[in-house]
Amino acid sequence: MDNSLNILVLSCGTRNKIIQYFKRELGEKGAVIATDCSPLAPALYEADKHYVVRRMNEKGYLDEILSICKENNIKGVLSLIDPELSFLAKHKQDFLDIGTFPIVSDHDAIELFFDKYRTFEFLNQNNLPTVKSYLNKTDFYKDLENRKINYPVFVKPVNGSASININKVTSNEELEILFNRFDNLIIQEFMDGNEYGIDVYIDFISLEPTSIFIKKKLKMRGGETDKSISVKEEKLFDLIKKFVAITNFKGIIDIDVFEVRGEYYISEVNPRFGGGYPHAYENGINVPKMIFNNLNSLVNKSEIGDYQEGKLMMKYSEIKTI
Ligand SMILES: Nc1ncnc2c1ncn2[C@@H]1O[C@H](COP(=O)(O)OP(=O)(O)O)[C@@H](O)[C@H]1O
Ligand SMILES: [Mg+2]
Question: Where is the ATP-grasp domain (predicted)?
Answer without folding.
Answer: 120-296
